[in-house]
Structures are given as C-alpha cells and as structure tokens.
Amino acid sequence: MVLSINYFLSFIILVSVLILDIFVYYAYKRDKLYISLFLIPVIMYDCGYAFEILCTNLEWAKFWAKVEYLGGAFLGVLWLLFALNFTGYKEKLKKKKVFMLYIIPIFVLAMNYTNDFHHLFYKDMYMNYENIFPILEVIHGPVYWIHIVYTYSLLFIGFIIFIFAYLKSVLTIRRQILLLMIAWIIPWIADIFYTFKLIPFNIELTSIAFSISAIITGFAVLKFKLLKLNPIALESVFSNMVDGVIILDPESNIVNFNNSAKDIIPELRDIKAGDNKIQNVFKKYEEVIKNLNNSEYSENIITMENKNGVKYYKVNVNNIYQKNHKSLGRILILNDITESRNQQKKLMELNSFKDKLFTVVSHDIKSPLAVLVSLLELFDDEEDICKEENIEVLYEIKKNVKSTYELVENVLEWFRSQIDGVVYNDFSWNLFDIMKNSLMPLTRNAELKNIKVLYEISKDIFTFTDRNMLEIVVRNLFLNAIKFTNKGGSIHIKAKEVDGIIIISVSDSGIGIEKSRIEKLFNYSEGYSTLGTNEEKGTGLGLMICKQLIEKNNGKIWAESQEGIGSSFYFTIPADKVRERK
Predict the structure, then answer these.
(1) Residues 275, 298 contacting (CB under 8 angstroms)
(2) How far apart are CA 462 and CA 457, in angstroms?
C-alpha cells in the first residue's frame, strides 16, 4: 500500500508530462516557440519530481531534485515571457532587459548544484521514512527563499498582464484569458497549502499544480486556438479596421464593435458591449435591421446622412456557426463605398456629357464646315472674289470660321482640364496687363455692336495664377457679354482685392438670364447654348470650362442676373500680396 501511492502519483505526473510533450510539439509546428519554451521547464520539473518520489535512497533523491531545478529555476521567467508574448507586449521589452531576467534563475541553479559546499539553498536534506511513502525532506536556506519570492513575483506580474489583456479583449478572447488566469493561480494555491501545512500529508504539491496549470493552458491552446493570434494583436486589428464591424450573439445582443463602427453609428458611443439589442440601438437605421432579419448571408448598399453629408455603405451580414451547426452569432460589416460611389456618379455624368459633347461637336463643327464648303464652291468660277456682291458671302465665311474656331478651342481646353497630372504654371502676374492683353483683340467685336466697354482695374493688383487659364476665362466672359448685349449697350469690367482674394466681375446691360437657368449655367450635364442678340451662335461649353479652370486655380465663379436689365459674372483668384507690398 505504501509503495502503491508514490507509484500512482509518479504515473499521474508522467502522463501529464506526455500530454505536455504533445502540446510542445503542436506549438512548435505552429511556429509558436514561446509556448514550447514555457512548457519545457514544467516538463523537466515534473520529470524530476516523478522520479524523486520513487527513490528510497538519499543520493538518488538529491540527484532528481537537481534535475527538477533545471526547469524549476526558470519557471517564473518563462511563464512571464509567455504572458508578454501572448498579450503582444513582448516587443516593448528590450533584449537587454530580457537577459537580466535570467540572472537570478542562473544564480539559483548554480547555488542548487553547489549546495553541498555552502548549504545556502538547502540547509539540510534527509529522507523521511515515516510518511505515507519515503519523501525527501529539506530545510530551506536563504537562496531558496530568494528563488520563491522571485518566481512568484514574476507569476504575479504575468497575472496582472493577463488582467489588462482581459479588460481590453473581445468576449471570445476573454474566455481564453480567463482559463489562463485560473491556470496562473493554481500554483499559488498549492504552495500556500504546502507552506502552511494545510494538508494531512507533507507532500509538495507544486509539481502537480504546475502540471495542472500547464494542461489547462494546453487545453486553451487546443480548444480555442490561441496559437493563431494573440488577443492584443487581435484587438489591435479589430479596433483599427477601416470597416465598421459589429459582433452579435444569437439573441442579437451587441457583443462588441470597433472604433470605425462608432464613427459610422454615433449611437454606439453611448452604450457598452453586451448591454443592448441591436434593434434598440439601430432604430434610425431601418435598412440595416432589414438586412439583419435576413436569415442567410446578405449584402446590400445603404445610405446614411450625417454632418459630412450623404454616405454610402455596403452592408455584409454573415452568420457564424460551430462545427455542429449551432449558431454562435452574426457579424455585421459596414464598408464605406462613398468615394467609389461618387466616382461612379461622376463617371456617369462625364459619360453623359461626353455624349452631349460629341453631339455638339458633330453638329456645330459639321454644319459650319458644310456651309463653308458650299460658300467656297460659289467662288469656283469667280475671277475676282472681292466683288461687292461677294462681300456678304465672305462675311458669312468669316462668321462660320470664327464660331468653329471658338468651339474647337473650348473643346480642346476642356479636354486639357480633364487630364490628370496636367501642369499648371502658377506665377505672379499684373492683373491689368492680363486683362489688357486678353481683351484688346476682342474690342472690335464690341465696336461692331456699338457697345461701350468700361474698365475699373488698378494697376497695382498682382495675382498668383495660371495666366493662360485666366485669359481663357476672361475672353469667354467678355465674348458672352458682347453676345447678349444689345447694340448701344455697355460692359463694365471691375477687379478688387479683399483679404488676399481678387474678385473680378464682368457686367453687361444685356438681355439677362432667367432665374431658373442661372444655377444650370456652369453644370455640363445641364449645359445648353442660346443665340445672342445678333443671332450669334455659342458652343454651350464656355461657362462650364470657365468653372473648371477657375477651380483649378483655387477660385470660385458665380453669376447674378435680372431679365431685361443685364447680367454680372464674378470669379475669384488668389492675390500675390508679396508683389503688392513691393
């Protein structure tokens, strides 16, 4: 009976060693070396103790006690490193500090192996044959207590690290960490029982306690697959995902959600995970609830409006099942597709405008060119094309050539403005010089209609802009003013600088514009052309191009008009205040 107890205990310990060996292999195959290193000292400690309790000879018992400390001396350090690795804090610990953690364990191992010379680890060692089986009894020395205090201090630090990880982790990870915390506590309880002699037999339970702890840890590894991703890393990935992620349990309670989800659904900021059903929190988001009520996988596009405007989200709802097909819950993913949706919308508008543009080009270029061909055919048999009766024909040719040129120029400038990477030459220019050079060649057009042109532009204003683009805008607005102003009317061009911004206006006393049409003037999807007061044709592209070119130069453009009184077109460009001070 006496022999059977220690053999039974030894057998149990060796079985636990075999189980731990399997865990070590499993961890190694999964490239998780830190888990293998954490289990190896437990295996060595258990092996030593399993054979120690079988010994009846003091020398052999002392030998196996030394084998125990090949692992026992390093238990605290390697368990702490396991905690740091598992929770993701290992990278914050420098190699120099990691090396320092091993100083005391190495010292303890050396003192244990040389104890016969100084007796500082064990004051005395002897066999107790009066127990339920022969047991090696020891009287601990000061170095042993240094070892105990150091080991359990490291275990305590590791336990605190797990507590912080528990508080930061998602619900599923918390179950895993809770198991590890239980495993962490077991050796302390066993040591308390042994130290204060709370069990009837004087048997050291530390080895058995560490075995149980390691097996619980191994179970957590196998059951919950802790080897794949540590909880802090998982939490970091979860929290920093761009997509909004909301995790629900089978009863539709909100188990967890990430930061992006809180940005998308502000109501999530006011609740705690696990306290609310999604139907109560998402009362305003009927489309989301509708997706959730679908029993199978679903994917839809929904719109949400917030302070930043309308947002588009692709909603994915996935059901999660265990191997036995029992539901674990659902994952709701909100993917922001606003930018791609807006790009798609813009592309559709551009395609629509492209169709309209080709219609305009095919008509407005083909028609005048056909007229030109017909008119030029009239001169085939003419020896003197400058006869008085041909003057009207020549005038028509000139008008058609001019309108065709204007169309081609506007179309080419629009295409240029659409090219990504186009170079804009931003330099400092005198505004008066630009206006003079741009408008002087066109004043003849105003004179033909007896239109008076007035300027109110200071010679001291400098602008920082692309000159070519500015000239195109000024010419378009000026020609439009001429086009829609009756004979004997006036055009007034002004420029003033306010807080680093130059405001330029081109006003006319023309026929004006209907109020309902003003907002459509700069929109290429609504663009159209009307005849001028002298039946002048336009392209319908000029104002749209002006808007794009002004915006390229960090400005704005708008219009004000009253029917029968006239129109004013305004635009802004940056002022060059440095040149103005000079």
Answers:
(1) no
(2) 11
